[in-house]
Each structure stands twice: as structure tokens, then as C-alpha cells.
Specification:
It holds the Pfam family HDOD. InterPro entries: dGMP_Pdiesterase_EAL/HD-GYP (IPR014408), EAL_sf (IPR035919), HDOD (IPR013976), RNase_Y/CdgJ (IPR052340). By secondary structure, the chain is α/β, with parallel strands linked by helices. The chain folds into 2 domains: about 190 residues, Alpha-Beta Barrel (TIM Barrel); about 210 residues, Hypothetical protein af1432, CATH 1.10.3210. Helix content is about 50%, strand content about 15%. It has an 8-stranded mixed beta barrel with strand order 1-2-3-4-5-6-7-8. Strand 2, helix 1 and strand 3 form a beta-alpha-beta unit. It is elongated, with a radius of gyration of 24 Å. The protein starts with a strand and ends with a helix.
């Protein structure tokens, strides 16, 4: 588990109502530029805020800067359209390929934000792409923008670096409709806990998706090897499927719903985000052991879905990985009620199986025997399934070391 730090600076409308937040990656509690590359910073912001199960305010927009490479890789498509404002950085060139890509984002419904230099660079021919243009009061005379504001009624102009009520009133009189600066609120450094898939898991997933794009079972299997990758995939599917009546509750469902292109984008984002993160290996191995055991032992009981059993085992240590109460984890996962009960209180059939696994791990053989009797399971068959799961986990762990 790692802490992702970021600066959160609010953006307000004319009535000083909260319109959105700009998110910028930081390496700690100091509000200064990080020493990592732009793509890694962006991907960590996206992973920690949109793919960690954190509940974002649906009424707000979140401004995130993207490099040209990230935009061409279609990384923004991993994030819900109504939540994300794509900020095109000054380093991005108005190449035909990038212009075409931005047109696809606009068509999909994303809001695109550009800096003031879009009016004086090659972007000037493509101003129709921008829903918001930001102008800094620290470096520019806002009065110079009255003609542009009048000529482009479809663009919302954002005045940044607003530091006094007089500047706010002036900007509003000149036609600006969005505002950002110390007059309203200083940036706040926040942090979110995030759990990172291993690099090898991500690369394996890339290989399988490209080698066997139509083999859903194989893709699901390779994603399920790494509990944090599985968590990201299921979380992403549920975020993008908010309109669905039934929650996505098992690995195969998530893979099918996302589809190949969304999976490729998600894994590309995670690779950029997590290349330097190798925490939680012990907990991940323990969770995968539980997942494999529960999947294999599930058929020994009536009415237990093996995929759901795998998910319960895989997610049973996420509270320790993320450093948050299991109640907070379960609230974000949209699991079926029996799975929720298992994770929260070790109750129900999945909970009994999880409890049985826990006692085997701790060699509490009296409890193992009594639970097997309660569940009408043969103790020998259960222990054989656990040893098989342990062997498979050790094999996976050996192949996943970087």
C-alpha cells in the first residue's frame, strides 16, 4: 500500500459555487512540482482518485493534465466522461494525429481545457475543440481577452491566479465565467491510499490480451493472479457501468464489460502509474492463496459460485493493503450481499469458507475440524485443496518476481 499525494485546487463559477478541482501530483506534503515524469504523475493521479474505489463528488469536474503521448494512448477513456476535464498541456503539439484524437474525446463528451496560448499557436485553427480556456491574471492583461470572449461564446474562459475580490469582480465584468486562485482557496495537499499491481502482472496481462484477444477465460485468469490488478479492473468496470442495474461482481463479468480496448487503456495507465511500486507482495500472495483455495473448495459446497468465492478470497485482505477499514472497502465494491457478509463478518457460506481458510493458515486444527463438520465437508479433501492452492500460489509468486 502506498500514499499518493496530490494538490487539489478548487475552481468556482460566477456565483462562487464549487465547479470542480484541479488535481496535480505531489511527492509529499509540500506543494511543489514533483521530480518524476509527467506521464507517471498523471497516471498516479488517475489511479489514486478514480480507480481506488474512492467515492468522488459526481457534481464536480476534475481537471487533470495529460501529455501528448497519454492522449494518443487514449488513457482518458479509462475515466468517466462527466468527471474528467482533459487539460492539454503547453508541450502538446497540434499535430493532425493529436487533433483527431481530441476530436474523438470531444465527441465522447469530455470537456477539454487549453491554456491561453491556444489562441496564439497552431491550436488557433482548432479552437472548436476547447470547452474551457484558462488565462492567468499573473502574466496577462484580462482586458485583452474581451474580444475573444465575445467571439467564442461556446468557450468558457477561466481566470486563474485570482488573489483579491477586486480581481474577481474585474474578471467577472470582462466575461470570465470560471475562477481559480488564492482569493477563493489555497491548494490543499491531500493523499489517498493506493495498492499497486506488480509490473510483471501488468506485462503478463498485456501479453495475453494481445496474444489471445478473444480468449476471455485466459485474460480473466491472468488478471486474477494479482489481487490489486483484479481490484482495479472490477472497480473500473463498476465506475464505468454506474448506469447498470446490477453491479459487476466477478472477474469475468468485469473483463467482458470493459472489453479489450478499455482493458488495454486501463493496463497502460497502471503500468505508467506503478512501475516503481512493489509493496504488498506478502499480502497479495496470501490473498491469492485464499482466492484459489476458495475457488477450488467452493464446488464442495452447494450453491457457491466459484468466481464469487475467488473474489471474496482475493479481496479479504484489501483492508490491510489499503490501510482502511473493511467497511470502507466493501462499500465501494458493489458486491453481492453474501460476499459482503463474508468480508465484513465472516458470516454466510462464503464467510464460513473464508474462516476455514484462516484457521488452516494459523494451523488451528481443532477449529478446522469443527468447521468442516459444520459445513459437511471432508477434512481431508479440504486440506488437499488448500495444499494444491498453496502450490499454485508459490508457482505464481516465483513467476511474478521482478
Amino acid at each position: 500500500m502506498s500514499e499518493i499525494f496530490f494538490s487539489c485546487q478548487p475552481i468556482f463559477n460566477e456565483g462562487q459555487n464549487h465547479w470542480g478541482n484541479e488535481l496535480l501530483f505531489r511527492e509529499g506534503q509540500e506543494n511543489k512540482f514533483p521530480s518524476i515524469d509527467e506521464d507517471t504523475a498523471t497516471s498516479r493521479i488517475l489511479s489514486a482518485n478514480f480507480l481506488s474505489g474512492k467515492e468522488l463528488d459526481d457534481s464536480l469536474r476534475y481537471v487533470v493534465s495529460f501529455s501528448e503521448a497519454a492522449l494518443l494512448d487514449e488513457i482518458p477513456f479509462s475515466i468517466p466522461v462527466k468527471s474528467l476535464v482533459i487539460c492539454v498541456t503547453a508541450k502538446c503539439n497540434a499535430t493532425p494525429m493529436l487533433v483527431k484524437q481530441l476530436e474523438s474525446y470531444q465527441k465522447a463528451g469530455f470537456t477539454i481545457l487549453g491554456e491561453s496560448d491556444v489562441f496564439t499557436s497552431r491550436w488557433q485553427r482548432h479552437l472548436h475543440l476547447f470547452g474551457v480556456v484558462r488565462v492567468s491574471m499573473a502574466t496577462e492583461n484580462l482586458s485583452d481577452w474581451t474580444e475573444g470572449i465575445a467571439n467564442y461564446p461556446d468557450i468558457r474562459f477561466l481566470a486563474s491566479k485570482v488573489e483579491s475580490n477586486e480581481e474577481f469582480v474585474l474578471a467577472k465584468q470582462l466575461g470570465f465565467s470560471l475562477f481559480q486562485g488564492y482569493f477563493f482557496e489555497q491548494p490543499v495537499i491531500k493523499s489517498h491510499s493506493d495498492v499497486a499491481p506488480s509490473v510483471i502482472s501488468l506485462l503478463d496481462a498485456c501479453i495475453v490480451i494481445n496474444r489471445s484477444p478473444h480468449d476471455i477465460d485466459e485474460i480473466t485468469e491472468v488478471i486474477s493472479r494479482d489481487v490489486s490488478l483484479l481490484y482495479k479492473v472490477v472497480t473500473s468496470a463498476n465506475i464505468l457501468a454506474k448506469s447498470k442495474k446490477k453491479a459487476i461482481t466477478n472477474p469475468k463479468q468485469a473483463v467482458v464489460y470493459l472489453g479489450l480496448e478499455s482493458l488495454r487503456r486501463l493496463i497502460s495507465l497502471l503500468i505508467m502509474s506503478n512501475m516503481n511500486h512493489q509493496e504488498c507482495s506478502h499480502l497479495q500472495n496470501a490473498a491469492i492463496l485464499r482466492a484459489i483455495f476458495m475457488q477450488q473448495a467452493g464446488p464442495l459446497l452447494n450453491d457457491l459460485d466459484p468466481d464469487e468465492a475467488f473474489l471474496v478470497g482475493a479481496f479479504s485482505l484489501l483492508d490491510a493493503m489499503l490501510g482502511v477499514p473493511m467497511e470502507d472497502v466493501v462499500e465501494k465494491l458493489s458486491l453481492n450481499q453474501p460476499a459482503k457478509l463474508a468480508l465484513l463478518s465472516r458470516s454466510g457460506p462464503y464467510g464460513d469458507l473464508l474462516e476455514l481458510c484462516k484457521h488452516i493458515e494459523h494451523a488451528n486444527w481443532d477449529w478446522v475440524g469443527s468447521l468442516c463438520e459444520k459445513m459437511a465437508l471432508r477434512e481431508r479433501a479440504v486440506l488437499k485443496a488448500f495444499e494444491k492452492a498453496r502450490y499454485q500460489t508459490q508457482t505464481l509468486a516465483a513467476t511474478m518476481q521482478v
